[in-house]
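User: Predict the structure for this protein chain, please.
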Amino acid sequence: MPTVHVRIGVHRYAYHRDPACPALNGKQQTYAGQEQMPEEEAQERGLLACRQCSA
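Assistant: Here is the predicted structure, written as structure tokens:
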């Protein structure tokens, strides 16, 4: 099961395969870091695959 990266903070809509993805690390005023979790758990939380780094 692949591990993905998820933003910690207010703006959480997607999970990311690339920990350096600009969409994951942007919006520094609301960024509180990132956590890792199984892709299946991210999907269960309602998150979608990032279109930038998952393409």
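The first helix runs from residue 22 to 25.
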